[in-house]
Amino acid sequence: MITIGGLTENDRAAWENLFAGYNTFYGRTLAPELVDRAWREFARGERMHALGARADGALVGIVHFFTHVSTTSADVCYLQDLFTDAEARGQGVGRALIEAVADWARAQGCVRVYWHTQTSNTTARRLYDQVALDKGFMQYQIPLGS
């Protein structure tokens, strides 16, 4: 059975391992100070939020999200990071985390939850196509340096 809940200090090592797996998937390695900053923000629970999925007491998935204003609607929720341990995939972990974020956002008065993924991420897109609408937008970025 999968349970979803907030992260505790005891989850730090398992969370770091999952977050490292997420970043490795996207070809990046985060500096330790960025990992520490994210953990501090999650602990505060003001700007950035995190939930974890547990199976048999072990942390097997994580999701990071935050709200922001919109010019055309009430606030919206951006699901920034979602990752499930490879051994737990196909067991409903990702779906449960997405549903938990949607429930949280609904309770905050948000009008939608949205996220991005690479078009080549076919495994994740199979799930996303079942739980959300592909609105057909592309993302553009202007890197501003470090």
TrEMBL record:
Isomerase is among the record's keywords: no
Coiled coil: none
Tagged with keyword Ribonucleoprotein: yes
InterPro entries: Acyl_CoA_acyltransferase, Bact_Acetyltransf, GNAT_dom
A GO CC term attached to the entry: ribosome
Any one GO molecular function term: acyltransferase activity, transferring groups other than amino-acyl groups
PROSITE patterns: GNAT (PS51186)
Domain of life of the source: Bacteria
Keywords noted in UniProt: Acyltransferase, Ribonucleoprotein, Ribosomal protein, Transferase
Ranges for domain N-acetyltransferase: 2-146
Protein name: Ribosomal protein S18 acetylase RimI
Native species: Amycolatopsis tolypomycina
